[in-house]
Design goal:
With 483 residues, the protein is of the alpha/beta class. The chain contains 14 helices and 22 strands. Strands 6-5-4-3-2-1-22 form a seven-stranded mixed β-sheet. Bound molecules: zinc ion. One of its GO terms (molecular function) is RNA endonuclease activity.
C-alpha cells in the first residue's frame, strides 16, 4: 500500500494521490494547484508515472483543486475510466470547462500584451482547452453510489457521503494489502446544504484532509446572526456589498441564507446580483440532485419553491452586464467568483469598489495566505488588482463559520471510528498539520504528514514527530479568519 502525493501535501490545493494498492495503480483526484505563481507553476510538472499505465482514477468531489488537472492527465495519455458520483460528473464538467475557458482567455490576453514587445513566444500555453475537457468527460463513469461497491482488479472501492459539497464522497479501498480510507474533503457538520458525513469503518491506513484541523467553527446560528448584522451594517453604508464566492456550494448556500434572511424580514430586500455564470449553472445541479440536500432545502424543492432564489435576485450572464453593475447606484449585493479573489469577475468589482469607504467586502470562504483575498484579510493597505494598485478602503468582514470543511471536532469524531489506522495528513498548511499531530498523538494515534515528494508505505513509514524531514516552511502562515 504505497502512496506518492502529487499535490495537497503541505498545501491545500492540487490534490492528487498516486496509490499502488493490490494489483492496481490508482489515482485519487487530480486537482489543480491554485495560489501564487510558484504553486501554479507546479501544474506544469511532469507526473512521476506514465499516465497510460494508471489503472483507474477515482474522484472524491468536483472542486477544481481535486479535478483541475484531469484534462492534462488525458492530454498526456490517460485513457482509462474516471470513476465518480453522478453529481460529481455534472459539476466537474462545468468546473473544467470554465477552467479551460479561463486559461485560453488569459493566454490570448498575455499573447496580445507580449506581442507589443515581440515576446509572444515566451507566454506559456494553456494547460488544456475545451477539447481536452470533452475528452476527459467522455472517460468519466458516474457509477460510484454511496454505500455501493465497485471492483477494480483485486481492489474493492466503496464511496460514502463526505458532506462537503454536492456529490462529495470519501473512499474506502479494500485490497489484499489492507484497507485504506481516503477522506477527500470532509464537510462541516454544522453548516451548508449537505447532509452530515457518515462515519467510516476501521482501517489500516487513513488519508485525511486537515484544512481546518487546528480550529473549531462557531455554531451556524451565531454565524448567521453575524452575517445578518454585517449585511445590515453594509446596507446602511449604501455602497456595494461584495461577496466573493466559490461557484459550487458556497454560492448556493449564500443564496439560500440570503433568501431565508430576507423572507424573515431580517435583511432589507436590496438587489442581489449573482455575477457568476458557473455558479448559476451549478445551481441547476442542486435542483437535479435535490434529494441529497438537508431536509428544509429538500422540502422546499419538493413543494415547488426555489430555495436559491431571493426575490431580488438578478442572474448576470454577459460580461457587459457585469460591468454595468458598477454604474448601479445604491446598496446592492454582488456575489461573484472566484472565492479567493485570484481571478474571475470579482476582480473588476474589486478594482471599481475596493477603494471606496462605502463598500463592504464580506469574506465567506477560506483564503489561502498567498492569495489576493489572504493579503486583504491580513490588512494590506493596498493591493494589485488587474494590474493596478488599488487602496483597500472598503470595510472588510470575514465570516469564518460558513466553511464547507470539517473542523477539528468533526475530523476527530470521524477519525475515531477508524480504529488503529495509521493516519496520514494531507490537504493542509504545514503549521496546521503540525498543530494537529500532537492532538492525534494524545489520542494514541500514529500519525504522519505525507511528504511532498517521494513514495511512502502507508502502513509502515513513520517520520519522527510525524513531520517529513526538511519540509516544514514556517513562513507560510495560515490566515485564520476572524471568529
Ligand atoms: Zn473541496
Amino acid at each position: 500500500m504505497n502512496l506518492q502525493s502529487l499535490g495537497a501535501a503541505g498545501t491545500v490545493t492540487g490534490s492528487c494521490h498516486f496509490l499502488t494498492l493490490g494489483n492496481q495503480q490508482l489515482l485519487i483526484d487530480c486537482g489543480l494547484f491554485q495560489g501564487d505563481d510558484a504553486l501554479e507553476a507546479r501544474n506544469r510538472e511532469a507526473f512521476p508515472f506514465a499516465p497510460s499505465e494508471v489503472s483507474a482514477v477515482l474522484l472524491t468531489h468536483a472542486h477544481l483543486d481535486h479535478v483541475g488537472r484531469l484534462p492534462l492527465l488525458v492530454r498526456r495519455g490517460y485513457r482509462g475510466a474516471i470513476y465518480c458520483t453522478p453529481p460529481t460528473l455534472n459539476l466537474a464538467e462545468t468546473v473544467l470547462l470554465d477552467s479551460a475557458r479561463l486559461q485560453v482567455e488569459s493566454y490570448r490576453q498575455e499573447v496580445y500584451k507580449a506581442r507589443r514587445m515581440n515576446r509572444e513566444g515566451e507566454v506559456s500555453q494553456p494547460l488544456y482547452d475545451e477539447d481536452d475537457v470533452h475528452r476527459t468527460v467522455a472517460l468519466m463513469r458516474p457509477v460510484l453510489a454511496f454505500g455501493q461497491t465497485l471492483t477494480l482488479g483485486n481492489v474493492k472501492v466503496r464511496a460514502e457521503r463526505a458532506g462537503h459539497i454536492l456529490g462529495s464522497a470519501y473512499l474506502i479501498l479494500d485490497s489484499p494489502d489492507g484497507r485504506l480510507i481516503c477522506s477527500g474533503d470532509l464537510g462541516n457538520r454544522e453548516s451548508g446544504l449537505q447532509q452530515d458525513f457518515t462515519l467510516p469503518p476501521e482501517a489500516d491506513a487513513v488519508l485525511i484532509e486537515t484544512t481546518y484541523a487546528n480550529r473549531t467553527h462557531r455554531p451556524l446560528a451565531q454565524t448567521l446572526d453575524e452575517f445578518r448584522d454585517v449585511l445590515n451594517e453594509s446596507v446602511r453604508l449604501g455602497g456595494k456589498i461584495l461577496i466573493p464566492s466559490f461557484a459550487i456550494e458556497r454560492a448556493q448556500a449564500i443564496l439560500y441564507y440570503l433568501k431565508t434572511l430576507m423572507d424573515a424580514g431580517e435583511v432589507p430586500r436590496v438587489p442581489i446580483f449573482l455575477d457568476s455564470p458557473m455558479a448559476a449553472r451549478a445551481t441547476h445541479e442542486y435542483f437535479e440532485f435535490g434529494d441529497e440536500l438537508i431536509t428544509p432545502v429538500r422540502e422546499s424543492l419538493r413543494s415547488g419553491e426555489d430555495p436559491f432564489r431571493p426575490s431580488t435576485l438578478h442572474v448576470v450572464t454577459s460580461s457587459s452586464e457585469s460591468q454595468r453593475i458598477n454604474r448601479y447606484d445604491g446598496a446592492a449585493i454582488i456575489i461573484a467568483g472566484n472565492g479567493m479573489l485570484s481571478g474571475g469577475r470579482i476582480q473588476h468589482h474589486l478594482k471599481h469598489q475596493l477603494w471606496k469607504p462605502s463598500t463592504s467586502l464580506v469574506i465567506v470562504s477560506y483564503q489561502s495566505p498567498s492569495s489576493l483575498g489572504g493579503r486583504i484579510v491580513e490588512g494590506a493597505p493596498q493591493v494589485q488588482v488587474l494590474g493596478e494598485e488599488v487602496a483597500v478602503r472598503a470595510h472588510v468582514h470575514t465570516i469564518g463559520g460558513f466553511s464547507a470543511h470539517a473542523d477539528q471536532d468533526d475530523l476527530l469524531s470521524w477519525l475515531d471510528c477508524t480504529g488503529p489506522a495509521h493516519v496520514w495528513l494531507v490537504h493542509g498548511e504545514p503549521d496546521v498539520m503540525n498543530a494537529f499531530l500532537p492532538v492525534l498523538e494524545a489520542r494514541g494515534r500514529v500519525a504522519d504528514r505525507v511528504p511532498q515528494r517521494g513514495e511512502v508505505s502507508l502502513t509502515q513509514t513513520h517520520f519522527p514527530g510525524g513531520k517529513p524531514p526538511g519540509e516544514v516552511d514556517e513562513s507560510r502562515r495560515l490566515v485564520v479568519q476572524a471568529e
